[in-house]
Fold these 4 entries.
Entry 1:
Amino acid sequence: MSNKITLACAICSSRNYTTNKNVSTHSIRMEVRKYCKTCGKHTLHRETK
């Protein structure tokens, strides 16, 4: 079963991306390096609640 999650920038905390995650195979919080338009550079984005 997959759930819709939101990714937030670790530096400025802006919520930029949404994606799906399979909860049964990935139980820990997702962390991805993506482009943040607020910061203007690639930063670490973490899964939010």
Note: The chain has a mean pLDDT of 94.
Entry 2:
Amino acid sequence: MNKQELIDQVVKKTGQSKGSITEALDAVTEAIKTAIAEGDTIQLVGFGSFSRGERAAREGRNPKTGESLQIAAAYTAKFTAGKAFKDAINVKSSKSK
């Protein structure tokens, strides 16, 4: 599902306009990005948590030439699914089997 398909699903469920749902989704994703960039954690009870992880600097290898190179440390975005979310996924997957 891409962003437009997600917006269409929310419009169908809420009856709100496509423009207002797009604006709301953009605001939510921007708030999540800003909070994570600042090192905050966002917890959505029943859904999951977004947080910032760290990847240490390491040595890598260019697959084409085999040459060693240094990969810089970086922050990563992490998502941990909440129990209700995991349960909902497992119910749907067990029904489809």
Note: The beta strands are 42-44, 48-55, 58-61, 68-71, 74-81.
Entry 3:
Amino acid sequence: MLHHILGQAKKHPSLILLFVFIGAGGGGAALYFLRLALFNPDVYWDKKNNPEPWNKLGPNDQHKFYSVNVDYSEVKKECPDY
């Protein structure tokens, strides 16, 4: 299969960039899946030693990919209809 892809790339050099972007997208998706599988507190692999790992999370542990701390008390002061 790799021989066929290289043959197509030699015949049509404009396909090389397409192969690079598809490979980079697939690699990025695989790395993101690995990150979720290894570092997400919702995913656990060892049910015998740690059956409920979410109980060990502290209040300051980040468990989201991107978290923003918003003070909603300021929003209530600015919006009289709220």
Note: DSSP finds three helices and no strands in the chain.
Entry 4:
Amino acid sequence: MKKKLMTVFGTRPEAIKMAPLVKLLQKNGEFEVKVCVTAQHRQMLDMVLELFAIEPDYDLDIMQHGQTITDITSRVIKGMEEVLKAEKPDMLLVHGDTTTTFASALAAFYQKVPVGHVEAGLRSGNKYSPYPEEMNRMLTTSISELHFAPTQGNRENLLKENIADYKIAVTGNTVIDALMSVIKEDYSFGGELDAVDFENKKVVLLTCHRRENWGEPMINIFKAVRRLVDAHKDVEVVFPIHMNPNIRKIAAEILSGNERIHIIEPLDYEPFANLISKCHIVMTDSGGIQEEAPALGKPVVVMRTETERPEAVEAGTVKIAGVFEDDVYNAAALLIEDDAEYLEMARAVNPYGNGTACEKINKKLAEFFCH
């Protein structure tokens, strides 16, 4: 009788990174696979489900306007309790660091269902940055039975926390599996992005939304971006803006009024991935794009004071600029002006694998149940 695996995710980043694993597990047929979504982020989650043709077996549909972390946590725990009682899976697979991840792992613990943690072992060393993700990761680690670590550094973090070595598999990151499945050399965007001169301009992809950057840090970042465009006539910026109205207000005040700054609505994953492929550099406060961009040879300027992905910094694919205007500007301007500096980062080896993470996870799962 096949062992039953259940996967759960609730946000766009989780869905992107879990989608190739779901598809592989379904294709291989070694396990019975059930898919549950919490819809912590409804609209953006649905875009990914449609792209990868995944139809959930369960949809908790928890998203509510103005929801707090407490709201999400309590609704996920209660919803997952009912799902887990109904399905009685042999293992629940969670991903990364969202509130869905931690709350689902906790619900599984209450039902004595083993948990497998995909993208395990990332640490920033500051429990409030990123918030609440850093603590979500650590709490999920304490509950999990299997830990799928993207890098050797992540494995070492887990060993320091007394996780047994045989429970850890270094796999690479599943986002590379997802990325390679959607990149197309002749990709055509259509719409607003047709106005972007990818051939003759150095296009900067900007993403900025992280909670700890709200307020003055975000103002500093946007001022640095505006200054970069004003000082370099060969630079264009594409900013798929977050839905948060506070972010939109600051962006409108600082970034509007320049025809080389394109503020656009959030993109589906396929056009977003191909946008990374066509841009010159990435400026971001996000996490996942620190893994994706290096796989496509794109230098990344991280607008945060620390990162839970230090191997990218060590590999030379990422530079941490902080959140002060001059520092952000100087880090980006160097990559625009200095070809040697740019090429050194662009040619650095991506530390997050070569697109075989899902196969390695499948192998570890088979070994676990075999033994």
Note: The two ends are 15 Å apart (CA to CA).
